[in-house]
Specification:
This protein is of the alpha/beta class and 441 residues long. The protein folds into two domains: 270 residues, Rossmann fold (3-Layer(aba) Sandwich); 137 residues, Roll (CBS-domain), CATH 3.10.580.10. The chain contains 17 helices and 19 strands. A six-stranded mixed sheet has the order 7-8-10-4-11-12, sandwiched between helices. A hairpin with a 2-residue loop joins strand 11 and strand 12. Helix 6 packs across helix 7. The protein binds adenosine-5'-diphosphate and magnesium ion (MG). This is Quaternary amine transport ATP-binding protein.
Length: 441
């Protein structure tokens, strides 16, 4: 998602995080425990034998500046331990965490405090709002530690409240707010310091589904305004797929797969990941553009003709419909042999293709979730054209494609297809020498 943003709309103030072979063992004999992991013993066995608990084992990956990086896994898989090592709330047993190249393990206590105040904010699932403090005071809480004066704190807090849609609530008390709104205050508190890194540990997990989806959208919207590096912990794959640019999946302290949501859905690394992926609502994750197939396309340069050659072309080929593009691949309309015949009835001269466009064939936006296609598809007379934001034709979605998409455990969406060159309509066809059925060079 962050790749598709138009440039210039977003301020980027983000940092890269490298997690360099990081281990965390809880217990006083970590080396012994690590050795047993290397020998292949399970986390449970090691705990029973040694009393040492493997929190994180050899995590190694990079979080790029400005992306939402989701860490997923079952409860106890090490997510919280991992994220707490990113601001050194927990120190790794081995390995390094680099924030913009800086090894945070080497920071002096003072630099570490500065990092936590200025650069990294954390949002928890249940951060306690102070009941006796107003929403504004709760939001500003912590800013005084950053050395900000009262006026500055208030200004920052008001701005943060505005960002999360709570303008006007500053004077209220937490118990006057719904659970969702309280979570917004938590987010506002994290945003008030204007951090370049946000660590969110199951921040939305306690919210009910509708509010949760709302908060996810909120987060994506905030990313459009000012892009931060967000490390988002979740145990919900739908959530991960929706907001994550990259997702890491953890199991028993180990990172078993890192990839884009797409990569993980298409090629789960093992059975554990496959089990996760099976439950995913693929129709919410994949977009029309992901499942669009190539179709029979024609180009007509001349607006005043085209119906006759297109009709002959369709009759000569095996195709029912032709998707008409401009020479710049902008989608124009769909014709069928039936619509062409009807348009040509009682007409002797050349006739423009636009007179034969099927009128109840709406275009589908490339970024429309597959889940939203069922309505338009149910009444569609033909496979519907998928069109990018700038009007380019990307292919078609048919009812069959849609049914096939639904009919599987894991959704291995077809890999992108080779683009088919549109056929240049030759007004003289079939009498001209060139054969329009061959793709134009
Ligand atoms: N302070 C601690 N002392 C001992 N073991 C811990 C401690 N914190 C976490 N663990 C263990 O580390 C593992 C990972 O825990 P955690 O990171 O909280 O998982 P998650 O956030 O994925 O649910 C668990 O087995 C947990 O029991
Ligand atoms: Mg946790």
């Amino acid at each position: 998602m962050f790749n598709s943003l138009p440039s210039g709309t977003t301020t980027i103030m983000a940092k890269q995080i490298i997690i360099d072979h990081v281990f965390k063992v809880f217990g006083d004999a970590p080396e012994q425990a690590l050795e047993l992991v290397r020998q292949g013993l399970s986390k449970q066995d090691i705990l029973e034998r040694t009393g040492q608990s493997i929190g994180v084992f050899d995590a190694h990956f990079t979080i790029e500046p400005g992306e939402i990086f989701v860490v997923m896994g079952l409860s106890g898989s090490g997510k919280s331990t991992l994220v707490r090592m990113l601001n050194r709330l927990i120190r790794p047993t081995a390995g390094r965490v680099l924030v913009d190249g800086q090894d945070i393990g080497k920071l002096s206590p003072r630099d570490l405090r500065a990092l936590r105040r200025k650069d990294i904010s954390m949002v928890f699932q249940s951060f306690a709002l102070m009941p006796h403090m107003t929403v504004l005071e709760n939001t500003a809480f912590g800013l005084d530690l950053a050395g900000m004066d009262k006026a500055g704190r208030e200004k920052a807090a008001l701005e943060a409240l505005e960002q999360v849609g709570l303008t006007g609530w500053g004077a209220s008390y937490p118990d006057e707010l719904s659970g969702g709104m309280q979570q917004r205050v938590g987010l506002a508190r994290a945003l008030a310091a204007d951090p370049s890194i946000l660590l969110m540990d199951e921040a939305f997990s306690a919210l009910d589904p509708i509010i949760r989806t709302e908060m996810q959208s909120e987060l994506l919207r905030l990313q459009q305004i000012k892009r931060r590096t967000i490390v988002f912990i979740s145990h919900d794959l739908d959530e991960a797929m929706r907001i994550g640019d990259h997702v890491a999946i953890m199991k028993d302290g180990q990172v078993v797969q890192v990839g884009t949501p797409d990569e993980i859905l298409r090629a789960p690394a093992d059975d554990y990941v496959r089990d996760f992926v099976r439950g995913v609502d693929a129709a919410a994750v994949f977009k029309a553009g992901d499942i669009a197939r190539q179709a029979f396309t024609v180009v007509s340069e001349r607006v005043d003709q085209g119906c006759r050659p297109a009709l002959r072309l369709l009759e000569d080929s095996d195709h029912e419909y032709a998707y008409v593009l401009s020479s710049r691949k902008q989608f124009q309309g769909v014709v069928s042999s039936q619509s062409l015949r009807r348009a040509l009835q009682g007409h002797n001269g050349p006739l423009g293709l636009q007179h034969a466009f099927i009128d109840n064939a709406p275009t589908l936006a490339a970024d429309a979730p597959v889940a939203d296609l069922f309505g338009p598809m149910s009444s569609a007379p033909c496979p519907l054209p998928v069109v990018s934001e700038d009007g380019k034709f990307l292919g078609v979605v048919s009812r069959t494609t849609l049914m096939k998409f639904l009919d599987r455990d894991t959704p291995p969406v077809p890999p992108p297809q080779a683009e088919r060159e549109p056929i240049q309509l030759n007004p003289q066809y079939p009498h001209a020498t060139s054969n329009p059925v061959a793709p134009a060079a």
